[in-house]
């Protein structure tokens, strides 16, 4: 069985590094993108099963990245979890309308709890694949 691939899209390097190390310790293959444009490039080459996506980034924000992921036939089935400090209902509603798999407010969960959420979402992906 190959490693699950997770792309972390986060412009704050300390947070990205923390999640990268935690996910690698849990056996994931991980890449990090520090902005939306780089994220889209890495999605094409790394082909992650899941993107852990921040909303607030300079240039292309997370909702714009999500919209591009969902509008491309080759990437629309990638699981996306928003990991953000924003917890406004308006932002969450926009993200849900674009088809996120989960929305996590950074301050609400520990890194271990975030990894547990990632495992749940990826387990659901494995279950869906077995049905087809």
UniProtKB/TrEMBL annotation:
SMART domains, alphabetized: REC (SM00448)
Modified residues (4-aspartylphosphate): 54
Transmembrane residue ranges: none
Organism: candidate division CPR2 bacterium GW2011_GWC1_41_48
Residue ranges occupied by any Response regulatory domain in the UniProt entry: 5-121
Keywords: Phosphoprotein, Two-component regulatory system
SUPFAM superfamilies assigned: CheY-like
Pfam families: Response_reg
Record-level GO BP terms: phosphorelay signal transduction system
Name used for this protein in its record: Two component transcriptional regulator, winged helix family protein
Top-rank lineage group of the source organism: Bacteria
InterPro entries tied to this protein: Bact_response_regulator, CheY-like_superfamily, Sig_transdc_resp-reg_receiver
């Amino acid at each position: 069985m190959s490693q699950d691939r997770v792309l972390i899209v986060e412009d704050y390097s300390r947070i990205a590094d923390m999640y990268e190390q935690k996910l690698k310790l849990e056996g994931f293959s991980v890449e990090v993108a520090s902005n939306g444009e780089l994220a889209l490039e890495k999605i094409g080459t790394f082909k992650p099963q899941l993107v852990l996506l921040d909303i607030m980034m300079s240039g292309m924000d997370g909702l714009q990245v999500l919209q591009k992921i969902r509008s491309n036939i080759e990437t629309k089935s990638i699981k996306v979890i928003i990991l953000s400090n924003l917890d406004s209902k308006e932002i969450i509603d926009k993200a849900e309308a674009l088809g996120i798999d989960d929305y996590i407010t950074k301050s609400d969960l520990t890194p271990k709890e975030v990894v547990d959420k990632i495992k749940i979402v990826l387990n659901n992906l494995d279950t869906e694949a077995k049905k087809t």
